[in-house]
Design a protein that fits this description.
Layout lengths: L2 H9 L9 E3 L22 E3 L19 E3 L10 H6 L5 E3 L8 H4 L10 E3 L11 H8 L5 E2 L12 H20 L2 H58 L1
Parallel strand pairs: 1-2, 2-3, 3-4, 4-5, 5-6
Length: 238
């Protein structure tokens, strides 16, 4: 599919100025140049044009809010100075799998003052001696090159950062709710009090029962004594 048609498809009835993300991977550029993308995409923050056979960035429009640009697996060999002119706020740039061969080509990225992460993986420039040290010296504003910093620490995934933020929010909610054991202890105390009350009631019932039993026993004893006395008196008469 041609790039221009792909852009119209990706708009999904939205106006260009409403779009913040645009993915055009694997479509066909026009003679190696960008087609159908213009300055009306002024809110665009993420643009991906991977494997679209780009050879030039000359027709890249001004995208002042663009933060992330994916240009991997194209045929770009130079002309990177356009990026600083048209996309001055880039923080992430992926040029892996292109035809970039020397430090002179990359030097044009010095004017991208906000650039933090650069990917040149699978470019010929990576075969240079002291490639990584040379790039970090040349582009002192970047933190990550090909996914790792100067100490070989891997760049964090943005999704992981979001998950950590959610966990922090959950921790704050738990703190506001108070220690989980606090209410359980109060419930236990209430249960203990109710148990004591039940015990006292049982004890009172037991005493009442014994008292009734004792009255019944005394009653039977008196009856038996009267009966015995009556028998003795009758025997005396005889």
């Amino acid at each position: 599919m041609e790039m221009k048609k792909r852009i119209n498809l990706e708009l999904r009835n939205q106006a260009p100025e409403e779009v913040t993300e645009l993915v055009l991977d694997n479509c066909k550029s026009s003679n190696g140049e960008i087609e159908g993308l213009n300055d009306s995409f002024k809110e665009l923050e993420f643009l991906s044009m991977a494997n679209v056979q780009l050879t030039s960035l000359a027709k890249l429009p001004t995208l002042s809010k663009l933060r992330k640009l994916e240009l991997s697996d194209n045929i770009i060999s130079g002309g990177l100075e356009v990026l600083a002119e048209r996309c001055p706020n880039l923080t992430y740039l992926n040029l892996s799998g292109n035809k970039i061969k020397d430090l002179g080509t990359v030097e044009a990225l010095q004017n991208l003052k906000n650039l933090k992460s650069l990917d040149l993986f699978n470019c010929e420039i990576t075969n240079l001696e002291d490639y990584r040290d040379s790039i970090f010296d040349l582009l002192q504003q970047i933190t990550y090159l090909d996914g790792f910093d100067q100490e070989d620490n891997e760049a964090p995934d943005s999704e992981d950062d979001d998950d950590e933020g959610d966990e922090d929010d959950n921790d704050e909610d738990e703190d506001e709710a108070g220690p989980p054991g606090e209410y359980e202890e109060e419930d236990d105390e209430d249960d203990g009090g109710s148990d004591l009350g039940e015990g006292e009631e049982e004890e009172e019932v037991g005493l009442s029962y014994l008292m009734k039993e004792e009255i019944q026993v005394n009653k039977y004893c008196c009856t038996f004594a009267l009966y015995s006395l009556e028998v003795v008196l009758k025997s005396c008469e005889y």
